[in-house]
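Exercise 7b. Backbone tokens:
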């Protein structure tokens, strides 16, 4: 059995759910296994208590019931987003030298799907969890808190981690980009990005960005939000609409590189002077930008480094090494001005 530090919370048992729901352990077992004849009222009472406690049934039977398998649950919002494969590469790079193996679950940015994925993965008693973001439902937070294993939340540090978090400050990233745009002399700024209730990191960058502009007496002149994946075609479409609607804009800030690249290609086709007539910037620093006719200004998200550090923490904790001081691990993204942001 792997040695775990910081394991101050024991895994929950049937007895805990029994005491919380006021029914026998045998009845709790029947409900959670969906076996036997149990009234609807009793079933609901047990399910509510289990969810409130964050209880996850253990699928490892017999003598293995108190152990952990050599799997690390890696839970991310998307495989289609070009950001997360690099995170996974960093995780795999570290874990390949250990007995641990990553297994990936995808949530599509949906809290209810995250609950389901987390429930299934924790039921196999993995040796650790690496999960994107700091925002989770109460049920997910309860499961993570009570898991008794190392939990590393990744990509973001703007919040309170359940155990440990590794990432960048997205509010600071938005602030730094705004400062660069202001210092370059741009004043009529448009913003394009995903709808933000579910993309918390994009929302935090937008907050840091707009607050910094406001301090300089600048308001966002136009903005456009969309649902769905980050695609070149969507960037072209949004940029065409915004330029038609607000022809006096002198800067466009995109929430990610994919739509930013689409916008850049559209504007070049229209013969618009970049960065003289209009400047552009985006976020993530993906390799796709290397193949564009102009280098798009962007800020990297330290993706591979985040994966590497998160996996190192999980591996160290399973090896019995003390990482108690690593509650928040902050990485610093770098801004690349490229060819689309005036240099001052």
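Sequence design result:
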């Amino acid at each position: 059995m792997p040695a775990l530090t910081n394991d101050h919370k024991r895994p929950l048992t049937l007895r805990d759910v029994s005491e919380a729901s006021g029914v026998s352990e045998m009845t709790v077992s029947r409900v959670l296994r969906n076996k036997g004849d149990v009234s609807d009222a009793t079933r609901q009472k047990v399910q509510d208590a289990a969810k409130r406690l964050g209880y996850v049934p253990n699928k490892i039977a017999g003598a293995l019931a108190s152990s952990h398998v050599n799997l690390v649950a890696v839970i991310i919002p998307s495989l289609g987003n070009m950001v997360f494969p690099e995170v996974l590469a960093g995780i795999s790079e570290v874990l390949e030298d250990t007995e641990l193996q990553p297994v990936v679950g995808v949530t599509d940015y949906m809290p209810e799907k995250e609950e389901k994925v987390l429930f299934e993965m924790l039921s196999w008693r993995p040796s650790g969890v690496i999960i994107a973001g700091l925002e989770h439902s109460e049920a997910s937070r309860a499961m993570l808190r009570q898991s008794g294993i190392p939990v590393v939340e990744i990509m973001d540090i703007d919040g309170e981690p359940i155990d440990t978090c590794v990432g960048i400050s997205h509010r600071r990233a938005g602030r730094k980009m705004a400062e660069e745009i202001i210092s370059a002399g741009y004043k009529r700024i448009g913003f394009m990005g995903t709808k933000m209730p579910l993309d918390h990191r994009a929302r935090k960058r937008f907050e840091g960005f707009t607050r910094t502009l406001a301090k300089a007496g600048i308001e966002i002149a136009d903005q456009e939000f969309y649902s769905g994946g980050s695609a070149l075609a969507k960037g072209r479409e949004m940029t065409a609409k915004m330029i038609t609607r607000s022809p006096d804009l002198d800067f466009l800030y995109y929430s990610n590189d994919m739509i930013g690249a689409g916008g850049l290609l559209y504007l070049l086709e229209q013969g618009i002077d970049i960065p003289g007539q209009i400047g552009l910037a985006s976020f993530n620093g993906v390799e796709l930008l290397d193949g564009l006719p102009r280098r798009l200004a962007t800020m990297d998200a330290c993706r591979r480094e985040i994966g590497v550090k998160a996996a190192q923490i999980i591996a160290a904790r399973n090896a019995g090494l003390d990482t108690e001081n690593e509650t928040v691990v902050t990485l610093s993204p770098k801004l690349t001005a490229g060819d689309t942001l005036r240099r001052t």
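Instructor comment: The radius of gyration is 23 Å. The first helix runs from residue 14 to 21.
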